[in-house]
Structure formats: structure tokens, C-alpha cells
Task: inverse folding
């Protein structure tokens, strides 16, 4: 008869993991930064592997266009427009009730990264933009925390591990591409099976780190194209002139200026920066009763509809306006409904 103690039997039976490796996983803490397509698959694999504590960070809400590739979300999540971090945590809690899940519906930036990531054993990339990846690289090099890079778009993707004292992301690519230079899931689409390939590879590298087998890590980056049946490798070498890991110039950590309004990667949604003070969502909800449609209040999230725009107010002070890419229209909506100038 199967019982709970058999949960990791097939994994701990691997000679490369064993009982000691399984205990190491149970005591480990991993931050999954971005709980979209890659982040969902990564978090699911880590939860099933028995990683003891998962920090799930994402600024966005679940939409119908996510369901094709974001494996932790359901139609109900999209219908309710739940925060991705909390919807993922709810699903993972059903997958493995023995681990600790720490969801944060938040926008990671230079001003809050230390508080959010301090103490984790590995940072795993599930993000959808290079600004966040270069910020993560800077922080992980500074804090001597392993960072596993992952990215996927169209039918291809790439992943690689950055270890303390080894070549960092900026040794290979000193600066990120300019906005618009590279395809996004919005402009090029993304194949769901590509996500599975990249996420599985990234999680395998993460598990190697957690069980202490860093010698088995690939020394660089691996590229896969699921459609074209291509795979190639980029061997990373320390650049003696690297501004990050050699000269200790953490430029992306120093960009802690005022957050600005922006259109999110998926399109059709504007994010407005945090309010001057943390909002009292309960009070705001009461003030909007009878004035807007579809008003609902959940932990860390207030939602309503007005003039065909869906508005999501988060506990960290951010606001998402879905249904437009016009920053002026989004700001006007918030000024009219919440009386806030952004």
C-alpha cells in the first residue's frame, strides 16, 4: 500500500540524489522570479521534488491567453483574474502540502530585491524581460547566491547556471538588448512544449546545486529549438573586464529610481507605479460600492471594472489597468475612480 513516506521514493532512489540529497532539498529555499509559463513549470517541478520552501514572485494576474502554456492555472483562475503568485501557490499546495509556499504579488525592482530574496539558496529565472534578469544577475553576484537563467520564446529557449566565483551573465552578454530588438511572447508567440524543455533543464541545474553536485552543471548556456530539432551550447568564460563579477559595478542594482508606468509584456495591460503610501484596499472597496462594476476584494488584491477597463489594485500599491495600452487613458481612469494622480 502506498503512503506519504513513499512520496520521494523514486527520486531518492537515484544514486545522484539519495537520502542525503532528498534531505538537502527539503531544507532548501528557492525563489522563482516570475510565475508565468517558465515559472509555473519550474515551481511545479520543484514542489514535486520536495524543495522545502518556494518563494513565488510575480506582478501579474492570470489571463485566458496564459492557459495554453502556464500549467498551474485553470479557467477559473482566468475568470476571476487571480494574482499569478497566489493562484500558483494554491495549486502547489494541493500538489505538495508538506512544503512552505511564499507567494508575493509584487513587482521586483532594485529597491525591494534584497528584502524579497535575502536568505534563498538559489534564484531561478521565470521572468519575461531582460531588465529583471540583469538585476537578478547583479544581486546574485553581489550576494554570492547561485542564479539559474532561463528564457523561452517562439519555439526556442536557453538556460544556464551562474555560480559565485564563476562567469556571470554579463561576462557573456555585457548589456541587455535594447527594447524591441528581441522577440517576445506577444510578438512571436511561444510553443508550450518549448517551455517544458527549458524549465526541465533549468530545474535540473537547480537541483544539482541544491544537492551539492555543482561539478555536474553545464559550464555555460544551452540553447534548444524544439521545432527545428536544434541544440547548441555556449561555454561561458570569466571576462577579466566584466563590470559585474570582476569590477563589482552593480549598475542594475543601483537603478533604484522612481518606478514608471509601463505596458506589460503580454500587451493590453498598463502597470502604474505604486501609490505614495500602501493602500487600504478595504476602505477603497467600500468607497467604490455602487460606482463601479465587478467589484471584488481578495487578499492583496482589489478588482473592479469601469468604462470597459478592468482595474486591479495590489497591496504593494501598484495598479494594473487591463484593456488599454494608452498610459494617458490608464492614468485618467485611476484619477477618476480612485482620486489618485500617478
Result:
Amino acid at each position: 500500500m502506498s503512503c506519504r513516506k513513499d512520496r520521494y521514493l523514486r527520486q531518492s532512489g537515484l544514486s545522484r540524489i539519495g537520502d542525503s540529497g532528498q534531505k538537502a532539498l527539503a531544507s532548501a529555499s528557492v525563489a522563482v522570479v516570475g510565475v508565468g509559463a517558465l515559472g509555473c513549470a519550474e515551481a511545479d517541478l520543484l514542489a514535486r521534488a520536495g524543495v522545502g520552501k518556494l518563494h513565488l514572485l510575480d506582478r501579474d494576474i492570470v489571463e485566458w491567453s496564459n492557459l495554453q502554456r502556464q500549467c498551474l492555472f485553470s479557467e477559473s483562475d482566468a475568470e476571476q483574474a487571480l494574482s499569478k503568485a497566489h493562484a500558483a501557490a494554491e495549486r502547489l499546495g494541493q500538489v505538495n502540502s508538506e512544503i512552505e509556499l511564499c507567494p508575493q504579488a509584487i513587482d521586483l525592482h532594485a529597491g525591494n530585491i534584497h528584502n524579497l530574496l535575502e536568505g534563498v539558496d538559489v534564484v531561478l529565472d521565470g521572468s519575461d524581460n531582460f531588465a529583471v534578469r540583469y538585476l537578478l544577475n547583479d544581486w546574485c553576484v553581489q550576494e554570492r547566491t547561485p542564479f539559474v537563467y532561463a528564457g523561452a520564446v517562439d519555439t526556442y529557449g536557453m538556460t544556464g547556471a551562474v555560480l559565485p566565483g564563476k562567469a556571470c551573465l554579463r561576462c557573456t552578454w555585457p548589456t541587455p538588448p535594447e527594447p524591441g530588438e528581441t522577440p517576445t511572447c506577444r510578438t512571436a508567440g511561444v510553443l508550450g512544449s518549448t517551455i517544458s524543455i527549458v524549465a526541465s533543464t533549468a530545474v535540473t541545474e537547480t537541483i544539482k546545486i541544491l544537492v551539492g553536485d555543482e561539478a555536474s552543471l553545464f559550464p555555460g548556456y544551452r540553447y534548444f529549438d524544439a521545432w527545428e530539432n536544434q541544440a547548441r551550447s555556449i561555454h561561458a568564460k570569466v571576462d577579466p573586464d566584466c563590470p559585474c563579477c570582476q569590477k563589482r559595478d552593480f549598475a542594475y542594482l543601483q537603478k533604484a529610481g522612481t518606478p514608471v508606468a509601463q505596458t506589460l509584456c503580454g500587451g493590453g495591460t498598463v502597470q502604474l507605479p505604486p501609490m505614495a503610501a500602501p493602500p487600504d484596499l478595504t476602505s477603497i472597496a467600500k468607497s467604490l460600492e455602487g460606482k463601479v462594476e465587478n467589484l471584488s476584494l481578495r487578499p492583496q488584491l482589489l478588482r473592479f471594472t469601469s468604462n470597459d477597463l478592468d482595474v486591479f489594485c495590489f497591496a504593494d500599491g501598484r495598479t494594473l489597468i487591463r484593456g488599454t495600452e494608452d498610459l494617458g487613458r490608464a492614468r485618467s481612469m485611476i484619477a477618476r475612480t480612485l482620486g489618485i494622480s500617478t
Remarks:
- The longest strand covers residues 147-153.
- The mean pLDDT is 94.
